[in-house]
Amino acid sequence: MNDMLAVDMERLDAFEAGLDLLHPERSALPPQILGYGEISAVLAIGDDGLAYKRMPMFHSEEEIDAYRYVFDRYVEQLTIAGVTVTPSRLVTARQRRGAYHVLYLVQPRLPAGAIGNQLVRTADQVGARALLTAVLRELVKVQRFNVAHAGAWALGIDGQISNWALTPQAADTEGALSYFDITTPLIRQAGVELLDAELFLRSAPSFLRWVLRRFFLQDVLDRYYDVRRVVIDLIANLHKEGRTDLIDAWIEHANEVLHNLLPNSAFPPLQRREIDAYYRDDAFIWRFYLAARRIDRTLHRWTGREYPFLLPGRIRR
């Protein structure tokens, strides 16, 4: 085990036992909220220099073992593809939350200024272009891996700018990015998805799961294996980061880079209208989804059941 990822299990168990899910700041050991994903929260617990991504969605140790296997294969194959993955460790809290086991992804706590979305918010045009180039090169590595291993392995990746960070030794973005949002290990072997995607539906309200499963789940999974759709998502999120001034330049640069690095791929050039349309649809879906989760949390409280997830406040989109 990497010594820098050593976890004080007594403190982690005490934290989980005293965690106030509705008001985390009132917990027995109040965490620092480092960030929220669409499904989970990233926390600092104490001063150990670690970040803990909390995932309370497993019904058994067997499910955790199966997830761990897929997670390990994903990191292994991403590394083979040439993508630098932030050092990571999966740790199970001994304190359960009702029917759920709680799994944590533990990573070194990254300086806020090293994370991609923080970088892009303050970057000038030259710096933003360099950052985009660096991310596109990583995505091209995944695309080339998938072509080279077609029929055997395929990797999906969420290329959003907020999922990348500068490595500690980096002086600039050139070849120095680390991918750290690896809790959805999208990997297919012989065309079969290894991840049990039903795990991630457990964070969805029960009254929405059948709709998501029937109409959205497969499309959401597939998009992360399609490099063009990944780049659309990457650029579209400039809306969320408040950098719409970069969108046209990023579209032009992405078209150029993908054409040069993937010359035999017949990708239609990206267009501004599809970027904007994608973001409008995506933002609406996630606003609706978060509102539904808040309703679900309220229903849990009314029926005397604990809601096991930490939800963010209002998110600017």
Computed Rg: 20 Å
Mass-distribution shape:
globular
Following the backbone from N to C, one meets helices and strands in this order, namely HEEEHEEHHEEEEEHHHHH
Share of β-strand residues: 5-15%
How many E-type strands? Answer: 10
Our count of domains comes out at 1
Query: Given the structure, what is the number of helices?
Result: 9
Helix content: 40-55%
Give a verbal description of the structure:
- The structure is a single chain.
- By secondary structure, the chain is an alpha+beta fold.
- It has one domain.
- The chain has helices spanning 9-17, 61-81, 116-122, 125-148, 198-201, 206-223, 227-236, 247-261, 272-302, and strands at residues 32-36, 41-44, 50-58, 89-92, 101-108, 153-155, 164-166, 177-179, 187-189, 192-193.
- The strands form three sheets. Strands 1-2-3-5-4 form a five-stranded antiparallel beta sheet. It has a three-stranded antiparallel beta sheet with strand order 6-9-10.
- α4 (125-148) packs parallel to α8 (247-261).
- The longest helix has 31 residues, at 272-302.
- 30% of the residues are buried.
- The mean pLDDT is 90.
